[in-house]
Amino acid sequence: MAIETQYETVPWLRTVDNSSNLSTANKGILDKDDFLKLLITELKYQDPMEPMKDKEFIAQMASFTSLEQMKNLNTGFEKLSGLVTDNLLPAIQLNQASSMIGKEVKYLNPETNEEQEKLLSGIVNSVIMKEGQAYCVIDGKNIALSSIVEINASKSTDEKVLNQILDEMKKLVTAMVPGEAENDG
Questions:
Q1: Which residue, of 25, 90, 167, 181, is most buried by count of CB atoms within 10 Å of its CB?
Q2: Could you state, in order of their start, the residue ranges of all structural domains in the chain?
Q3: Adjacent-strand bridge partners of 143
Q4: Fold of 100-177
Q5: How far apart are the two ends of the chain, measured CA to CA in Å?
Q6: What pLDDT, in 10s, does the model give residues 39-57?
Q7: How many CB atoms lie within 10 A of CB 76?
């Protein structure tokens, strides 16, 4: 019986309540708090005749510091990953898709069957975001960016207007040149 009471005072041999350690058991890994508890317990129950050597203690403290820094890095990477996934990628997709507005594109037919064409073409009317993904609206259909296989360079509206003005000016110049109008009549 004396042996059993001696074991009961040693924390790692004592029966533990599983409900209090449920969060640690679910993680399946030891975190910095668990490491610190083990270190404190080791210091508390060390043999007073042979205390922990300085080198061992420094090595364990260095391990604890490294563990804490790795956990902080992991937390930082998780936050960065969430920021990129939730904010940056949708903004980039929206920017890319919006540059296609007014352009003719070819895209994979989302309702492809053997009788229909695999590639369709149309002009991008607008862009929408749906569940974090950008879609081009073509003829009333939402087409995913990944389905677009070709973007045709189209003349901008300014260029079209400029060409119309130049054509009208050519007509006016032709009409105003003396001799050409008389020969025509």
A1: 90
A2: 2-91, 100-177
A3: 136
A4: SH3 type barrels. (2.30.30)
A5: 132
A6: 788 778 777 777 666 667 6
A7: 10
Considering only residues 110 and 29, tell me which one the structure prediction assigns the higher pLDDT.
110
Alpha carbons 114 and 116: distance in angstroms, whole number: 6
Picking from 167, 127, 164, the residue whose alpha carbon sits closest to that of residue 148 is 127
Q: Is the pTM of this model over 0.85?
A: no
List pLDDT tens digits, range 57-100.
677 777 878 888 898 899 999 999 988 888 888 888 888 888 88
Contact status, residue 14 vs residue 7, Cβ threshold 8 Å: yes
Detail the DSSP E strand segments found in the chain.
104-108, 119-130, 133-138, 141-144, 148-152
Element (H, E) at 69: helix 54-83
